């Protein structure tokens, strides 16, 4: 069981740590209201955070942590309550974390891969934001602090990908 007074530590992983994981980190930290401390990283960090990820967060009134994309190096040695991957590549290259760490894969399309017009690109980032927000809402509605690790993991893995 988790400590009741300690915030949940969540690590969100994707390949580049430039869009989905950065948005999820901001959402978890905002929506968690002290109940969550989230960070993000990438298996192959990009050079910069995608400007559309930043503008999407700002349009929705969220603060961005302003950290550049970072690697997984050393993060597997830290204590995490959850590690959530948001892309298939990160899931497959994810290091092994402590047996006490619950893991879940919330695979989703990379909005940075949208090749259409600027409006289509902005829409792809907004869709990613909405999907992440919905998944995080569902996770935060669970009595996570009172669940055993295996039950927490099963419940978070079962969160649907629909909007």
Give me some keywords for this one.
163 residues; four-stranded parallel beta sheet; 4 strands; 36% helix; 13% strand
Structure write-up:
- It is a single chain.
- The chain is an alpha/beta fold.
- The chain has five helices and four strands.
- It has helices at 20-31, 51-59, 88-93, 118-140, 149-157; strands at residues 8-14, 36-42, 82-85, 102-105.
- It has a four-stranded parallel β-sheet.
- It is globular and about 45 Å long.
Radius of gyration, in angstroms, nearest whole number: 15 Å
Low-confidence parts, pLDDT < 50 over ≥5 residues? none
What helical percentage do the residues reach? 25-40%
Mean pLDDT: 87
Briefly summarize what is shown.
The protein is of the alpha/beta class and 163 residues long.
Helix-strand blueprint:
Blueprint: E1 8-14, H1 20-31, E2 36-42, H2 51-59, E3 82-85, H3 88-93, E4 102-105, H4 118-140, H5 149-157
Parallel strand pairs: 1-2, 1-3, 3-4
């Amino acid at each position: 069981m988790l400590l009741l007074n300690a915030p949940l530590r969540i690590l969100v992983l994707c390949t580049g740590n430039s869009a989905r994981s950065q948005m999820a980190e901001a959402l978890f930290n905002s929506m968690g209201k002290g109940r969550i401390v989230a960070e993000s990283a990438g298996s192959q960090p990009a050079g910069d955070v995608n400007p559309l990820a930043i503008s999407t967060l700002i349009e929705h009134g969220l603060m961005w942590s302003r950290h550049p994309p970072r690697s997984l190096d050393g993060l597997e040695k830290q204590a995490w309550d959850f590690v959530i991957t948001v892309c298939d590549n990160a899931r497959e290259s994810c290091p092994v974390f402590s047996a006490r760490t619950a893991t879940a894969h919330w695979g989703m399309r990379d909005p940075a891969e949208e090749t259409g017009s600027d409006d289509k690109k902005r829409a792809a980032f907004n869709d990613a934001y909405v999907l992440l927000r919905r998944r995080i809402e569902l996770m935060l509605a669970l009595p996570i602090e009172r669940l055993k690790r295996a039950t927490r993991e099963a419940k978070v893995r079962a969160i649907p990908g629909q909007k």
